[in-house]
Design goal:
binds adenosine-5'-diphosphate; metal ion binding; alpha/beta; seven-stranded mixed beta sheet; 11 strands; identical protein binding
Length: 325
């Protein structure tokens, strides 16, 4: 039966990501278009528990279409693992007569979404994280913008490294997934790409930097995924000692998280947001939305959490070979 759902809420949870705002806008506007009243939950699961919920009927969501971050705020709220807390959170929705919930977040948020689904809240999850580590989608909301931000910054780093014949060891985010490192490495021609799948020692990086310098490379860029080395500055010191080339270590940190969402980001976010509302209006629940091979798809959240990551070892080797040639 069409339109049994009268009210839906949306929240953003975990690490923020550019593209969350255009996704929220799409959910709100598409709900309105389907005569469903949209509600905003502020501060993720924390705000859900505390009842920080308001109708979006009279909120101008259009102005956030080109803004990074999430205008409904995000939070980390470990208390949500407690069933009693989740029950109280569900009651906040019941009190307002809200039938369904859209959760935008990473895999941690997906666990929370699955548990709400099991408690009878109609829940749909959207992949929101710059790390691209949600395997039920080729692209997560935030990944494309973060990738472009990294590329832009590495281009800048290259300018100064080139002027002083230096090497830079640049650490990027990824939370165990090497995609940001791998593809920014390909796009910037980084001489060395290090991910969890292709770890090498600082000494080995030093030897490659030396070899590349001897081959005539003036500047060297080494991109590494986070959490591989304890201290990027110590890695730089070792590389400098072995290669004899002035080496600087730097982590791009939170600047990777911000910024204006790219065209691809806004388009993918809107498509996934609309898909969420479509499924909710059909009474569906417990699904994770993604874009796979260009198509907008839905996978049960439980399954989505179990899909193994594609092994990129060969790809990483191939890109390293290309950039070192
Ligand atoms: P992300 O969603 O970006 O992976 P987190 O792992 O920090 O970020 O998860 C975001 C939030 O999701 C947590 O702070 C918590 O509120 C909720 N969450 C995470 N894991 C669980 C779980 N196993 N059960 C219930 N809620 C969870």
């Amino acid at each position: 039966m069409e339109n049994m759902i009268k009210k839906i809420a949306i929240l953003t949870s975990g690490g923020d990501a550019p593209g969350m705002n255009p996704a929220i806008r799409a959910v709100v506007k598409d709900a309105l278009a389907k005569n469903i009243e949209p509600f905003l939950v502020y501060e993720g699961y924390k705000g859900l528990h505390e009842g920080k919920i308001e109708s979006a009927k009279n909120i101008n969501v259009d102005k956030y279409i080109n803004r990074g971050g999430t205008f409904i705020f995000s939070a980390r709220y470990p208390a949500f693992k407690d069933p009693a807390v989740r029950q109280e959170a569900k009651e906040q929705l019941d009190k307002l007569g809200i039938d369904a919930l859209v959760v935008i977040g990473g895999d941690g948020s997906y666990h929370g979404a699955q548990l709400l689904h099991e408690m009878g809240v109609k829940t749909i999850a959207l992949p929101g994280t710059i790390d691209n580590d949600i395997t039920s989608s080729d692209f997560t909301i935030g990944y494309d913008t973060a990738l472009n931000t990294i590329i832009e910054n590495i281009d800048r780093i290259r300018d100064t490294m080139e002027s002083h014949s230096r090497a830079a060891i640049v650490e990027v985010m990824g939370h165990g997934c090497g995609d940001l490192a791998l593809y920014s490495g390909l796009a910037t021609g980084a001489e060395v790409i290090v991910t969890n799948e292709c770890k090498i020692s600082p000494e080995e990086i030093g030897r490659i930097v030396k070899e590349q310098t001897e081959k005539g490379k003036n500047s060297i860029i080494v991109i590494v995924s986070e959490h591989i080395y304890e201290n990027i500055h110590d890695v730089a010191k070792i590389v400098e000692k072995i290669s004899g080339k002035g080496t600087r270590g730097m982590a791009l940190e939170h600047l990777q998280r911000g910024g204006i969402p790219t065209a691809a980001e806004r388009i993918n976010s809107a498509r996934m947001g609309m898909k969420a509302v479509e499924l909710i209006s059909e009474g569906k629940s417990g699904l994770a939305i993604g874009i796979i091979k260009g198509a907008t798809v839905a996978t049960p959240i439980l399954e989505a959490l179990k899909i193994p990551r594609t092994d990129r070892t060969e790809k990483t080797k191939k890109f390293n070979k290309l950039n070192q040639a």
